[in-house]
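Example record for the data management plan.
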Amino acid sequence: MVYASVRESEIVPTIKIDIDKCKGCVLCVEVCPHALIVQSKEINDQGYQYVVLMDPEEKCNGCTVCAVMCPDMCIEVFK
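Corresponding structural encoding:
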């Protein structure tokens, strides 16, 4: 992989959720310290209501708690 050079001050912590793998267990919803992860009303190809990040104010600090709790490793953290 090739990564572009970016100053740390320009990086906004966030997460990426693989909605195709998510089984909607909502463990990440329960542990997010800022309550930024919510269960979608939509259903993925597996028939599960997946979770999504709702962070319009960019409050995610990339703490990794959600990714650690995810039993299916659907969450990737960027910080």
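Summary line stored alongside the record: DSSP finds two helices and four strands in the chain.
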